[in-house]
């Protein structure tokens, strides 16, 4: 199951939840104010082997970060 970030439209708190794929948050309850119906946020992710998009990990020195030219 993926981790999603949800925000409360009432108090603004952001929480991270382990949810089923595609969870939208309409039944989730805010842990701070009790509001029902949180909004899913887009959150960042990391990819092993890529170091900040400048190459790294198993990439060759000339890699631009997308590994299309080095793998």
TrEMBL record:
<dbReference type="InterPro" id="IPR013429">
    <property type="entry name" value="Regulatory_FmdB_Zinc_ribbon"/>
</dbReference>
<feature type="region of interest" description="Disordered">
    <location>
        <begin position="51"/>
        <end position="71"/>
    </location>
</feature>
<feature type="domain" description="Putative regulatory protein FmdB zinc ribbon">
    <location>
        <begin position="1"/>
        <end position="43"/>
    </location>
</feature>
<protein>
    <submittedName>
        <fullName>Putative regulatory protein, FmdB family</fullName>
    </submittedName>
</protein>
<feature type="compositionally biased region" description="Low complexity">
    <location>
        <begin position="60"/>
        <end position="71"/>
    </location>
</feature>
<dbReference type="Pfam" id="PF09723">
    <property type="entry name" value="Zn_ribbon_8"/>
</dbReference>
